[in-house]
Structure to design on (923 residues):
C-alpha cells in the first residue's frame, strides 16, 4: 500500500520536507532528550534507587501527583460546567469569557505564579476572605492545587467544548420523545458522549500539573516534605551539582508523563470506535 | 389515536413556516406529509411531536387538548431523519432506553424489558444484531433500530421525519414496502414526512400535499394524483407538460388546437394553462381531430421499459415530453426529426397565470 | 457583571423545556461557572494590573524602563525572534510531509513531534545542562575552547526552541490533513511547479493556521520560565529573560516592580488570546465559506 500510494502521489517535496523534519526533530528534540536516558543508564541501580526513593523525594511525588490529581478532578468538573455554559447558554460577554479561558495557556507561568501567590496570600484579594474561615492557601499544599487548577483550566474546557458543539440536537430530542427527563437525558445520553473527551482533558490537565514549575513555586512555600514539588527538587539537586540525582528523578517523571501520553492516545483510539461512522 | 390540528401557525425569525393549517389524521391511518423543502412539513411533524410549539392554534389527541404538552408528555414515537441513535449504546440498549427511563412505578422489570426488546427486534428483523453498536450497522439497519426504539414505548402515534431520505435507492424501495406491511400489522396512527411523491403515493393511506406553509390538497393517493386541486399539486406529483392558451365556453384554445375544459364552461376568453402528464400524451403520424397538436421529435431516450420522447410544439415552440412503451414506439417507428401529431389523453385546465 | 436570561426572546425554547434546563438550574450553572472562572482567572488577571500600578504610573514606568528590565526584554525578543522562525519552517515542512504523503512510521512522527509538550519545563532545561554542563557530553570541550553555552544566551535560545518546538506543526498538521491534497494535485496537473503550488495554493489555505501557530509559539517563547530558569544562571542584565527578571524582583520583595514587568507579559498574553480568537473566527469563516 505504501508503495502504490507513493508511486501515485504526484505532489513534490517529500524527500526535502521529510528529511528536514526528521533532521530537525533529531537535533532539537531526540538527541537532547536521549541525554536523560543515557545519563540515567550510566547510573548504578543502587544510586538510582537511592536518588528516587529518599523520603524527601517520595514526599514530593506524593504532593506533585496528589495535587495534580485533585486539580485535574476539579478541572474536570468545572471545565465541563464551563464548556456547557459557553456552548449552551446565552450570556453577555460570552465571547470574551471564551477567549479568556485560554489565558492560562498564554500567560507566562511566572506571572501566574506571583499573581496567584499575592491573590491567595492571607492579605490578598481572595486570601483575606479565606483566612477568617481557617483556609490557608498560599504557602501550603493547597496553594499547589490552586496553581495547578489555574494552569490546567483550559484543557478540559477545550477538549469538551468542540464535542459538545457537535453533539446532534436530534439525539437529545429522541431521548425526550422516548420519555426521558432532562437529567436522564444528560446522564444517559449527553454525558456518555462527552466522556472520552472529558477523560482526555482530565489526563492532559493532570500531565500539565505534574510537570508544572513556574506558577507553583511562588505560591507553594516550598517546604521540604510538605509543599515541595518534584520539579523544584530537580532544580535543587542541580544547584547542589547532584546531576545524577536530578537525572534519576527526571527519568521517573518522564516515565510518568509518557504513561499519561500513552493513556491519552488509548482513550482517543477507544472513543474513535463510537464516533466514526 | 386520532390527531386534530386546528389553525396552527408558526414563524421562525419572521419566516412563516406554517400559516393557519388544519388537518385531521384519523386513528390508525398512515399519512404522508408531502412537499418540497421549506414547505413546512417537517415543522408540522415536529409540532405534532411536541418538539416545537405553534405560535397559535391547537392540537388534540383523541379529542383531548395536547397543545402545551411537551414531547416527553405526549408519548409519541419519533423517528429522526438521521436516526439519532445513541452511539455509545448497543442496538439492544437503544431499543430498551425508552423503557428504562420510565419512572420506577411504571417501569417494567428487567426480564420484561428484555423480552419486549427482543420481540421488537424480531419485528424489525434485527434480533441477531442486538449486541452491535450503531456504527457497525448499515443505513437501513439503523433506520429499523430507530423504528424499533420508537415503538418500544408503545406510542399512540408514530411520526417519521423523512424516514428513507438518507438511504440509497434500492434500500429505500425495500424499506417502503416493509413500512407499509409493518403498519398493516400494528395499525398505529402514523405520519411521515417526505419530499418524494412516489414514496408518498406508494406507502400512504392519505397524502397531504404542502407548499409554503399551507396544505394544498389532501386525499387518498389516487385522489391527489388523478384529481390534483391546483397546478402546484399537479406539478409536484409527476412530470407535466404545459399548454398555454385561453379558455372559452368550456374549450381550451392553445395554438390551433382546442381541448375540452368542461369545468370552465362559464369562462370567457380567460388566460389558462392545460396540464398533461407525460404518460397521458398520445403520438400519431396523422391528426385525429382538432385536439391534435403538430410537433417534431427532438430526441428519443430509452429508460428501462419506457421510452421518453422529447418533442417541440410546432406552433408555440414549447417543449413537450411524452412517455410511451417500447412497443408503441416500435409500431410508430419514430426517429429523430419526424413530424408527428400528439394528443392529450387527459388534460386538467387551470384558469389564470399560475406560477409554479 | 450583569447576567440576564432573555426570557421573552427565548419563549419558544423556554417552552421546549425538554431540550434545556429550568431557568433556575441554568442560572445556577452559569453562576457556578462564572464563580469558578472568577476565582481562578478573572480576579488574578485584574490583580496583575492593580498591583502593577500600586505605586503609581511613575513607579510603573521606572520599573519597566530600568536598564536591567530593558536588557531582559531584549533577550526575550532575541530568543523569540530565533525560535519562532525556526519552528515555523519546521512546522510547515512537517505538516507538508505528514499531511500530503503516506509513509510507515507516520503516526510515530506525529507523536514524537508532541514530545516537548509532555515534558516538564524543568526537565527540558535539565537536558541542556546534561549536554553542555561542565560534566556534560561536550562541557569539557567547550570549556577548553572557551565557548559559553550553558548559563549564557545560546542555552537560553536552545531551551526556548525546544519548548516551543511543536506549536506551529501541531496547528498545521490537522488543518492540512483535513484539506487533503486535491487542490495541490489540481495545480500540479495544470502545470504549476512545486513552489508555485505551495505559495499560491497551499499557503492561502493555511495562512490563518500558520498565524495561529505563530501566535501561540511566540507567547510560549516569550513567557517560558522553567526551562530557561534552569539554563540561564540568572545573571542580571546578561542572561535574564523577562519572566526571570520578574522572579528576581519578586524574590527581592520589590512587588510593585515585579508586577509592573509582569503586566507587560500579561498584556502580551491578552493580546495572544485576542488574536487567537480572531484567527479562530477567521478559520471558521474560511471553512464555512467553502
Amino acid at each position: 500500500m505504501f508503495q502504490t500510494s507513493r508511486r501515485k502521489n504526484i505532489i513534490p517535496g517529500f524527500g526535502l520536507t521529510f528529511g528536514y523534519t526528521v533532521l530537525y526533530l533529531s537535533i532539537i528534540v531526540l538527541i537532547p532528550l536521549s541525554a536523560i536516558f543515557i545519563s540515567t543508564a550510566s547510573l548504578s541501580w543502587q544510586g538510582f534507587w537511592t536518588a528516587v526513593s529518599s523520603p524527601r523525594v517520595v514526599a514530593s511525588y506524593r504532593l506533585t501527583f496528589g495535587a495534580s490529581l485533585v486539580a485535574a478532578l476539579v478541572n474536570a468538573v468545572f471545565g465541563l460546567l464551563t464548556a456547557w455554559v459557553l456552548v449552551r447558554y446565552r450570556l453577555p460577554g460570552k465571547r470574551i469569557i471564551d477567549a479568556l479561558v485560554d489565558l492560562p495557556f498564554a500567560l507566562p507561568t511566572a506571572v501566574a505564579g506571583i499573581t496567584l501567590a499575592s491573590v491567595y496570600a492571607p492579605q490578598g484579594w481572595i486570601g483575606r476572605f479565606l483566612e477568617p474561615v481557617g483556609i490557608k492557601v498560599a504557602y501550603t499544599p493547597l496553594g499547589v492545587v490552586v496553581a495547578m487548577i489555574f494552569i490546567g483550566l483550559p484543557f478540559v474546557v477545550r477538549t469538551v467544548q468542540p464535542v459538545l458543539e457537535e453533539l446532534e440536537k436530534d439525539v437529545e430530542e429522541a431521548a425526550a420523545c422516548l420519555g426521558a427527563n432532562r437529567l436522564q437525558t444528560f446522564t444517559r445520553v449527553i454525558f456518555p458522549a462527552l466522556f472520552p473527551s472529558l477523560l482526555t482533558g482530565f489526563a492532559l490537565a493532570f500531565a500539565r500539573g505534574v510537570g508544572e514549575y513556574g506558577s507553583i513555586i511562588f505560591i507553594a512555600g516550598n517546604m521540604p516534605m510538605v509543599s515541595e514539588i518534584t520539579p523544584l527538587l530537580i532544580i535543587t539537586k542541580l544547584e547542589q551539582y547532584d546531576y545524577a540525582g536530578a537525572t534519576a528523578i527526571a527519568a521517573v517523571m518522564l516515565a510518568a508523563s509518557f504513561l499519561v501520553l500513552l493513556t491519552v492516545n488509548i482513550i482517543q483510539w477507544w472513543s474513535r470506535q463510537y464516533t466514526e461512522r | 389515536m386520532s390527531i386534530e390540528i386546528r389553525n396552527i401557525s408558526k414563524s421562525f425569525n419572521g419566516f412563516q413556516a406554517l400559516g393557519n393549517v388544519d388537518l385531521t389524521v384519523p386513528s390508525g391511518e398512515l399519512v404522508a406529509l408531502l412537499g418540497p423543502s421549506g414547505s413546512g412539513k417537517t415543522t408540522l411533524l415536529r409540532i405534532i411531536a411536541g418538539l416545537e410549539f405553534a405560535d397559535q392554534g391547537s392540537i388534540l389527541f383523541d379529542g383531548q387538548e395536547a397543545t402545551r404538552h411537551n414531547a416527553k408528555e405526549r408519548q409519541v414515537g419519533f423517528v429522526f431523519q438521521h436516526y439519532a441513535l445513541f452511539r455509545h449504546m448497543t442496538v439492544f440498549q437503544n431499543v430498551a432506553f425508552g423503557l428504562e427511563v420510565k419512572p420506577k412505578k411504571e417501569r417494567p422489570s428487567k426480564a420484561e424489558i428484555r423480552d419486549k426488546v427482543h420481540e421488537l427486534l424480531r419485528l424489525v428483523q434485527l434480533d441477531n444484531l442486538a449486541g452491535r453498536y450503531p456504527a457497525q450497522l448499515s443505513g437501513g439497519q439503523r433506520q429499523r433500530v430507530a423504528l424499533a426504539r420508537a415503538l418500544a414505548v408503545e406510542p399512540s402515534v408514530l411520526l417519521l421525519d423523512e424516514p428513507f431520505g438518507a438511504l440509497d435507492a434500492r434500500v429505500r424501495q425495500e424499506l417502503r414496502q416493509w413500512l407499509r406491511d409493518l403498519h398493516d400489522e400494528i395499525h398505529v396512527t402514523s405520519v411521515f414526512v417526505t419530499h418524494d411523491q412516489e414514496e408518498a403515493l406508494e406507502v400512504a393511506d392519505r397524502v397531504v400535499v404542502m407548499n409554503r406553509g399551507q396544505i394544498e390538497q389532501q386525499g387518498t393517493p389516487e385522489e391527489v394524483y388523478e384529481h390534483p386541486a391546483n397546478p402546484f399539486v399537479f406539478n409536484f406529483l409527476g412530470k407535466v407538460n404545459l399548454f398555454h392558451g385561453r379558455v372559452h365556453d368550456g374549450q381550451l384554445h392553445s395554438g390551433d388546437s382546442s381541448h375540452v375544459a368542461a369545468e370552465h364552461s362559464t369562462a370567457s376568453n380567460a388566460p389558462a394553462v392545460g396540464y398533461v402528464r407525460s404518460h397521458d400524451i398520445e403520438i400519431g403520424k396523422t391528426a385525429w381531430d382538432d385536439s391534435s397538436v403538430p410537433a417534431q421529435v427532438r430526441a428519443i431516450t430509452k429508460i428501462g421499459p419506457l421510452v421518453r420522447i422529447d418533442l417541440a410544439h410546432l406552433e408555440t415552440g414549447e417543449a413537450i415530453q411524452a412517455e410511451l412503451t417500447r412497443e408503441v414506439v416500435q409500431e410508430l417507428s419514430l426517429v429523430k426529426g419526424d413530424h408527428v401529431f400528439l394528443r392529450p389523453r387527459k388534460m386538467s385546465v387551470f384558469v389564470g397565470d399560475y406560477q409554479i | 457583571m450583569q447576567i440576564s436570561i432573555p426570557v421573552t426572546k427565548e419563549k419558544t425554547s423556554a417552552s421546549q423545556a425538554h431540550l434545556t434546563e429550568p431557568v433556575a438550574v441554568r442560572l445556577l450553572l452559569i453562576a457556578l461557572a462564572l464563580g469558578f472562572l472568577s476565582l481562578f482567572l478573572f480576579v488574578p488577571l485584574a490583580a496583575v494590573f492593580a498591583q502593577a500600578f500600586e505605586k503609581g504610573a511613575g513607579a510603573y514606568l521606572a520599573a519597566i524602563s530600568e536598564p536591567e528590565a530593558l536588557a531582559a526584554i531584549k533577550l526575550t525578543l532575541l530568543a523569540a525572534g530565533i525560535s519562532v522562525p525556526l519552528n515555523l519552517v519546521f512546522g510547515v515542512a512537517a505538516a507538508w510531509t505528514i499531511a500530503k504523503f503516506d509513509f510507515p512510521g507516520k503516526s510515530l512522527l506525529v507523536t514524537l513531534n508532541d514530545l516537548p509538550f509532555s515534558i516538564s519545563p524543568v526537565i527540558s532545561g535539565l537536558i541542556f545542562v546534561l549536554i553542555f554542563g561542565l560534566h556534560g557530553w561536550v562541557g569539557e570541550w567547550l570549556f577548553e575552547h572557551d565557548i559559553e553555552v550553558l548559563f549564557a544566551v545560546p542555552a537560553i535560545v536552545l531551551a526556548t526552541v525546544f519548548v516551543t518546538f511543536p506549536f506551529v506543526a501541531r496547528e498545521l498538521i490537522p488543518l492540512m490533513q483535513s484539506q487533503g491534497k486535491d487542490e495541490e494535485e489540481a495545480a500540479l496537473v495544470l502545470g504549476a511547479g512545486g513552489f508555485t503550488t505551495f505559495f499560491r495554493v497551499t499557503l492561502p489555505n493555511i495562512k490563518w493556521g500558520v498565524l495561529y501557530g505563530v501566535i501561540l509559539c511566540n507567547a510560549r517563547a516569550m513567557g517560558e520560565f522553567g526551562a530557561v530558569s534552569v539554563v540561564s544562571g540568572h545573571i542580571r542584565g546578561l542572561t535574564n529573560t523577562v519572566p526571570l527578571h520578574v522572579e528576581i524582583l519578586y524574590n527581592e520583595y520589590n512587588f510593585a516592580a515585579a508586577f509592573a514587568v509582569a503586566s507587560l507579559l500579561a498584556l502580551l498574553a491578552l493580546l495572544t488570546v485576542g488574536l487567537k480568537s480572531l484567527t479562530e473566527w477567521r478559520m471558521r469563516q474560511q471553512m464555512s465559506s467553502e
